[in-house]
Write a sequence for this structure.
């Protein structure tokens, strides 16, 4: 039996069990850096399978090693994120979240389940490959500064640095069983923007006696948009969005203060740094021109996620051999962000998508209270990831 056929067969055989893992995680979600019971469950399975591991990295993170023949050769790391989101689930399935206000609405339950399936397959096949596979169950992907950075800072790769790190993510827009890749820059950097605009409030009928921070905020939103449209290179995708404005006045009251929150995202780190300076200057000067003041705080988030071109090409070739060319697609750039980008800034990395669209239903948006996946896609997820890892190790 070929390597591909063996992995495919085992993936189908393990599917029901892996679905049960996913449903357990879905029913018991935990927020970023609070994944205590999630970690305990993963450790109990690794114990049952006699796979050695180290826990407690960045609080709840776990790493495990599967050593093949000549383990000193190439090391490929496989990563899954563990945390859920602060969302009240609206699904009525038998395994819906039991934790009020917390839900796996981004597929991390599926990521963990698929990686556990990989662990079973690769552990059984340790004699059929050279090198080492490192499993990473990572906390806190959804919360800055991200569990990836914290795990690396706390010695995730202290034993040995990876030759390649691979991550996969559900994609509800891709048909179930489809795999999507993109070499080079793939996902944007992300930064959080916070503005506090101070003026002089009072009666709305007497604006000549006031310094209106609401008007300043409106002008500032327009001025900030011009940073992207007039200062940024049109060839570099960038987004500056203001998503929250709070002015606690009334129909006849101008408040003393307005706060705004937003995001800036791009694909160029040098432009990112320059844009931060422009955001501060434009916000402060716009407020000053209106007679008020502005305090601007920028929380620097995840960097640009860059897929290693050669390794991504190898992974796509392996995916086509495993799933068929008709089931492997090229992905578009995404303005969303991922803390997997921290790994990609330091090591060769491949981050790809596996389709989870439920047949016959509209695409199910990520981070939505009704999010769900086509669970049979987990067979493709664990099988493709296992096959890609072994193909690269055996090259």
């Amino acid at each position: 039996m070929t390597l591909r056929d063996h992995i495919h067969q085992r993936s189908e055989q393990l599917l029901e069990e892996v679905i049960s893992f996913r449903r357990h995680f879905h029913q018991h979600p935990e927020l970023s850096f609070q994944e205590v019971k999630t970690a305990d469950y993963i450790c109990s399975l690794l114990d049952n399978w006699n796979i050695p591991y180290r826990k407690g990295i960045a609080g709840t993170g776990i790493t495990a090693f599967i050593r093949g023949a000549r383990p000193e050769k190439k090391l490929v790391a496989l990563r899954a994120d563990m945390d859920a989101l602060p969302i009240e689930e609206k699904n009525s399935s038998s395994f819906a979240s039991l934790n009020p206000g917390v839900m796996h609405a981004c597929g991390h339950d599926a990521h963990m389940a698929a990686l556990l399936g990989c662990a079973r397959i690769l552990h059984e096949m340790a004699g059929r490959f050279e090198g080492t596979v490192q499993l990473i169950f990572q906390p806190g992907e959804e919360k800055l500064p991200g569990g990836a950075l914290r795990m690396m800072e706390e010695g995730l790769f202290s034993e040995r640095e990876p030759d390649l790190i691979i991550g996969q993510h559900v994609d509800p827009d891709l048909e179930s069983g489809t795999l999507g890749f993109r070499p080079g820059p793939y996902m944007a950097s992300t930064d959080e923007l916070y503005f506090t605009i101070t003026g002089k409030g009072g009666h709305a009928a007497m604006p000549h006696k006031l310094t209106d921070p609401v008007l300043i905020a409106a002008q500032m939103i327009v001025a900030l948009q011009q940073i992207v449209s007039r200062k940024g290179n049109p060839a570099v995708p960038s987004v500056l969005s203001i998503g929250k404005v709070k002015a606690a006045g009334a129909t006849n009251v101008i408040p003393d203060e307005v706060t705004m929150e937003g995001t800036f995202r791009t694909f160029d780190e040098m432009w990112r740094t320059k844009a931060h300076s422009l955001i501060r200057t434009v916000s402060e000067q716009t407020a000053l021109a209106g007679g008020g003041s502005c305090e601007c705080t920028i929380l620097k988030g995840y960097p640009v996620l860059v897929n290693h071109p050669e390794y991504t090409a190898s992974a796509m070739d392996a995916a086509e051999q495993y799933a068929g060319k008709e089931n492997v697609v090229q992905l578009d750039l995404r303005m969303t962000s991922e803390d997997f980008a921290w790994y990609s800034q330091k090591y060769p990395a491949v981050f790809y998508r596996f389709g989870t669209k439920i047949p016959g239903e509209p695409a199910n948006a990520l981070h939505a209270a009704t999010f769900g996946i086509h669970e049979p896609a987990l067979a493709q997820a664990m099988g493709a990831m296992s096959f890609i890892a072994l193909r690269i190790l055996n090259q």
Summary: The mean pLDDT is 97. The longest strand covers residues 164-175.
